[in-house]
CMP deaminase
Amino acid sequence: MSIRKDWNTYFLDIAYMASTRSQCSRRHVGAALVQGKKLLGTAYNGAPMGVADCSEAGCLIVEELEIKLLDNGEEEMTRKQRCVRTIHAEQNLLLFTDRRDREGSVVYVTDQPCWTCANMLANSGVIEIVYHRAYPKDSDKVKELMMQLGIKFIHMENYSPPASIEIEVIN
């Protein structure tokens, strides 16, 4: 007899399946929008429609510097690299779903949202975000934002993606 998956595992599996469509050479990310127990949409990261993706045209990487003020008053500089050709899975999910569908919904995403995606999700009407892989570059400030807004932010640390999904993350 097989064991029935809980809802978070089931929908996170679907987000991982969506990630298999990504052509990003650095990170395959998938997202799913769920209201109640109803799947309303999926998305993955990649170049805009009709534009050569990173596997065809190469990554378009920019480096940003971020200054963080530490508790002791000192500043810490962090380098962040990102591809500006790629639209994130969460952004695509928001672009291809209706606002009324997002009100009171849950977003399942393979990776913790970056700061930009977290801000967009915060204004989208969702009430909960469930993710698997941590994103250390923005982790603390994203968690704080979600706490301030009362959006449930669940890290499925012990989750295991479906066996057929290859996971490789290049930072």
